[in-house]
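Morning!

This is the sequence you dropped in the shared folder:
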Amino acid sequence: MRRILATAAAETRIAVRNRWVSIAVVMMVLFSLVLSAAGSAPSGALGADRLSVTVASLTSLAVYLVPLVALLMSFDAVAGEVERGTLPLLLTYPVSRAEVLLGKLLAHLAILTLAVAAGYGVAAGAAIAVDPEAASGLPALWRLMWSSMLLGATFLGVGYAISALSRRPSGAAGLAIGLWLVMIVLYDLGLLAAVVADDGGTFTTTVFPYALLANPADAFRLYNLAASQATAAAAGISGAANAIPVWQSLTSILLWPPVALALAIAAFRKVTP
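The structure's back. Tokens below.
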């Protein structure tokens, strides 16, 4: 544990020096404020408190921004060490490769937690300042908070795996952006096209729910919207959120972080200094 904490401390100092902490916090606060201001307007029409509607808007924000920030922080975790020539020195220390990745994960996840807490906190504070009764939506905000950390841990692990497989920061950056585009944007568009073409057939009734649960971003969105009072604020996915049991989406977002980290460790073990 001491070796993991030492690695995490060193990685945190590097992230602070590279301004990743301030960049992540500013991005989350800015986008959270803008989205919460725009998304909380229909709270009266939906019959939900202002904070629950804000949480529904923040869920949509988190699906795009949390994976992106996680991938940007992790894509050069291994490839950067290889390019700078520091990996041979790092591996001479009495620390295993799994402990190196766990230390990096701990540091990056702490930075992501700080950024998400700042963004969600500012948005929640604004909602409660306008409507004191919005405090009843705090449980939904807490659920969004810890599930965002699980989503971030998943994409941090995926980023480490990409970094170990590509071994060059430029290649890892391209793969990370491409993966984000496929999993966050194109995946849902592909499912939508398949559902339209299927016209209520076997794919829509049998395959489609499992296809949503197989993507950690979709499982995260389904879990938070299914437990929210403002599901109707998320047009287009409210039907799926109500049809898929909450425990299934929760199981998916709990399983993905260890799976992604295991893939990253397996890929890192094949890297030769």
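Headline: The chain has a mean pLDDT of 82.

More detail when I'm at my desk.
O.
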